[in-house]
Amino acid sequence: MFNKLKAFTMAEVLMVLGIIGVVAAITIPNLKDSADEQVYVAKAGKVYSEMETAFSRASMKYGNVNDWSGIDNNTIGTAIGSKMAKYIDGTACGTGANAKCWTNDSTTSSTVNTAYKITLKDGATMAFFNDLTVANFAGNALTVLVDVDGSGKGADTLGIDQFYMYILSNSTMSDGSHNVAVNATPTSSSYLAWVLKYGNEDYMRCASNLKWYSNNTSCN
Q: Which of 14, 41, 130, 207 measures 20 to 30 Å from 157, CA to CA?
């Protein structure tokens, strides 16, 4: 006497494959986005570390940043960037519109065009803003805009692959955390600090729910 073998019908197989396809369509893009985000997080940390090292070495040679030659109204970015460039593995492009260092994408403005620009060997680009007077520098900070995968590549979006970092007149460098208040939500000026501290870019998804120095540091 033969036992009858049980098997799935073609309709059942197709139904399972359909379910698998729907699940894959939902989850794979999210997995890719998460992987891309971690690449940006890693690149941001690498660039900031390299910049810190360059600034430290330049400070050892030139002293307090306020005493560096060229510190003058609307040339502070050039004065600082040109000296740091000597300790950065990359190419200095100077000021003015320069496609090699910063393409004319949607983020380009007159502030970026007049900034002192450098391209790192790994492709990251940065612009040292020249928009401060000496008096304003004393009470504020020089802004450096960085694109971790190079201007004109990737998202070209502040908070994803572009970040602000700062050089303070007290001869320190900051990722933006110098202006962060406890329980404040992350803002564009502190996106880099958030990425370096918490390792995510969740402010792009649920910024209003996030708080500095609290338990609310991710969308999960």
A: 130
Question: What is the Cα–Cα distance from 163 to 144, expressed in whole angstroms?
Answer: 8
Integer CA distances (angstroms), 5 to 8, 14, 15, 16, in order? 10, 20, 21, 20
Cα–Cα distance, 190 to 162 (Å, whole number): 12
What pTM value is reported for the model?
0.82
> Is residue 126 a contact partner of residue 93, using CB atoms and an 8 Å limit?
no
**What is the CB neighbour count within 10 angstroms for residue 51?**
23
CA proximity to 127, closest of 47, 31, 208: 47
What is the identity of the amino acid at 176? Answer: G
> Which distant-in-sequence residues (6+ apart) come within 8 Å of 166 by Cβ?
141, 142, 143, 144, 173, 174, 175, 176, 178
Q: Return mean pLDDT, the chain.
A: 85
Structure tokens at 64: 């307090």
Q: Which has the closest alpha carbon to 113: 94, 139, 87, 92?
A: 94
- Which pLDDT value is given to residue 31? 39
- Closest to 191 (Cα-Cα) out of 133, 154, 148: 148
Distance CA 8, CA 66 (A): 78
Contact 99, 66 (CB under 8 A): no
Output the CA–CA distances (angstroms, integers) from residue 130 to 22, 33, 38, 144, 154, in the order listed.
51, 35, 31, 10, 26
